[in-house]
Amino acid sequence: MRKNAKFSLINAFFNLNPTRMNLQQIKYFLMLADELHFWRTSEKMFITQSALSRHIKALEQELGVRLFERNKRNVKLTEAGEFLREEYKKLIGEFESINRHARQIAAGEVGILRIGHPASITFSVLPGILLALSQKYPQLKAQMLEIMATEFDTALLGYHIDIGFNREPSKAKGLASKEILTENFALVVPAEHPLAENNTIELNEVKNEWFVLPSLAGKSEHVEQLRAMFEQAQFVPQVRFESDFGATLLGLVAKGLGISLMPFSYSYHLPSGVRFIKIAPTTSLYLIWRRNDENAALKNFLKVVENFAAD
């Protein structure tokens, strides 16, 4: 009987035929099973006693079992009714939990958001934004992916990430960009370098130094900005080692293999053996996403970042 009763209940959840058992009838049954009083139950369920009686009778006929023993004075659950009350409560709870979860997904409160980012913000703005996200939407999971600037648009258009941060706005059709902050560049020198105690510096003061940089032959906007800075300082840097990875450049500087130019955000990493000296030029950080993406979690993330930037 247990297996057949549960199977009947599952069918009832999807059966809205008013002549057969449905979810509302099960709710009437559960309320009556708790109250054991037709008048009180009808009052709480906003239904007449006669209508309540018809629904209970229809439920009993559909199941082929008596659910209540009743006379003029008392209403009592049968053994089958006792069993079904416990089973129905479990399944109703699961049913409501599923519905609630679906509503949370639709509202962008639950799910997974894949976020691309450059290494430079790993220890600066990114943790603060993720903290704000977790406080606002504690059940929303974020997957962080470090993406190269040259691969950023491809990752978004290929649905490998949902949104991300980049040092340059996207020019790709279908992608939207928004500047969220501007920061200084910094000259990064070894901790024992003669200039390490300076608070600011002009770039042309280090024209005779060896540099470690991304390849200046690259086509990214970041590299174009580096080239423009050297052109303005009127010298071509002597580049000893090249890397597109900030952590690698920091390691090379720490070993005394050259100095570098990097966004000041990298200073939040607090790497040992290096010193960051601000210089006048600035770099921006952009938030980029698919323009017509209807992902509710994405829209919530945009609001979090907007409020974070405003603060």
**What's the helix count?**
10
Amount of helix: 40-55%
Count of domain modules: 2
The strand line-up of the biggest sheet is: 4-3-5-10-6-9
Residue-averaged pLDDT, rounded? 88
Shape descriptor: rod-shaped
Radius of gyration: 33 Å
Secondary structure category: alpha/beta
- CATH architecture label name of the largest domain: 3-Layer(aba) Sandwich
CATH topology-level fold name of the largest domain: D-Maltodextrin-Binding Protein, domain 2
Strand content: 15-25%
Describe the structure.
By secondary structure, the protein is an alpha/beta fold. It has two domains: 2-106, Arc Repressor Mutant, subunit A, CATH 1.10.10; 111-310, D-Maltodextrin-Binding Protein, domain 2 (3-Layer(aba) Sandwich). It is built from ten helices and ten strands. The strands form three sheets. It has a six-stranded mixed beta sheet, sandwiched between helices. It has a two-stranded antiparallel sheet with strand order 1-2. It is rod-shaped and about 105 Å long.
Provide a brief overview of the structure.
With 311 residues, the chain is of the alpha/beta class. It is built from 10 helices and 10 strands. The chain has 2 domains: 105 residues, Orthogonal Bundle (Arc Repressor Mutant, subunit A), CATH 1.10.10.10; 200 residues, D-Maltodextrin-Binding Protein, domain 2.
Descriptors:
D-Maltodextrin-Binding Protein, domain 2, 311 residues, two-stranded antiparallel sheet, single chain, Arc Repressor Mutant, subunit A, 10 strands, 10 helices, 2 domains
Q: Secondary-structure map with pairings?
A:
Blueprint lengths: L1 H12 L9 H13 L2 H8 L3 H15 L4 E3 L4 E3 L1 H28 L4 E7 L7 H12 L3 E7 L5 H6 L5 E4 L8 E16 L19 E4 L7 H13 L4 E5 L3 H9 L5 E4 L10 E17 L5 H15 L1
Parallel strand pairs: 3-4, 3-5, 7-8
Antiparallel strand pairs: 1-2, 5-10, 6-9, 6-10
